[in-house]
Specification:
Blueprint lengths: L3 H4 L4 E4 L8 H16 L8 H7 L5 H11 L4 H24 L9 H10 L3 E5 L4 H12 L6 E2 L12 H10 L6 E5 L2 H9 L3 E5 L14 E3 L5 H10 L16
Parallel strand pairs: 1-2, 1-4, 2-3, 4-5, 5-6
Helix pairs in contact: 2-5, 4-5, 5-7
Bound molecules: magnesium ion (MG).
Length: 249
């Protein structure tokens, strides 16, 4: 058990991207996958509920492979098709990002700015592809994040903890004084598997998941409970840039 006193001083916060910092799943990735299907002359389309179910599989290429296999293609053919489609989809997603079509989740900019202002480090651990993650972070948050590890560098996707371990190693941060922020069960498992505490800010796709083991489960990054949790633990919380919101919804 970590003593509560030590608990209060966070040294680093590691953010997931998809569904956590940005609402990218429904209006970003899903749209990009459908445009990639269309560009390849395929009739496959993912509506909002279908995509919600497919999100249980992390990584776009794995999601496509699963989809093609379920539609009766051989494993080799499914893999080949998925690799091809995923390349196209990444290109399309990059275009959506550059056009500014992927907004931050409410409270995301504020939370990241507060963490930075407190003196704690901010990092990113995502299974997304660097080709769109990098322009997205730059476009939405500026040059804020210190260590960014993506699915391009780490092949084992969440819930495997590899991406979190890579961030901890590169940033040389103490896992006992670092917290992860995630939106999904796969993300929570990846973070806790790397020995981190994890705060979950769920969204419409993940709200029903069981987040047992999370340090806190909140409805979003602007949830007063989440804001208060960070206010109590950031290095300069007492005189910090922002007081906890006392009023509960
Ligand atoms: Mg996520």
């Amino acid at each position: 058990m970590i003593p509560r006193r030590q608990d209060k001083r966070l040294e680093a916060v590691i953010f997931d991207v998809d569904g956590t910092l940005v609402d990218s799943e429904r209006d970003g990735h899903r749209v990009a996958f459908n445009l990639a299907f269309q560009a390849a002359g395929l009739l496959d389309r993912w509506d909002v509920p279908t995509y919600g179910k497919l999100l249980e599989i992390t990584g776009g290429e794995r999601r496509l492979t699963y989809w093609f296999e379920r539609r009766g293609r051989s494993m080799d053919e499914a893999r080949e098709r998925a690799a091809e489609l995923h390349k196209k989809k990444t290109e399309i997603m990059r275009g959506l990002v550059i056009q500014g079509r992927i907004p931050p989740r409410p409270g995301a900019r504020r939370l990241v700015a507060d963490v930075r202002a407190s003196g704690a480090q901010v990092h990113v651990a995502t299974t997304g592809t660097r080709a769109w993650v990098e322009p997205l972070l730059h476009q939405v948050f500026g040059r804020t994040f210190q260590v960014v590890v993506t699915g391009t560098e780490v092949r084992e996707l969440k819930p495997n903890p590899a991406v979190y371990r890579a961030v901890i190693e590169h940033a040389a941060c103490d896992p006992a004084r670092t917290v992860a922020v995630e939106d999904s069960l796969n993300g929570l498992r990846a973070a806790t598997g790397a020995g981190l505490r994890c705060v979950v800010a769920s969204n419409v796709y993940t709200r029903e998941q069981d987040f047992a083991g999370a340090a806190l489960t909140a409805d979003g990054l602007d949830d007063p409970a989440l804001v208060a949790w960070f206010s109590r633990r950031l290095p300069f919380a007492e005189s910090g840039p922002r007081r906890a919101v006392a009023k509960r919804a």
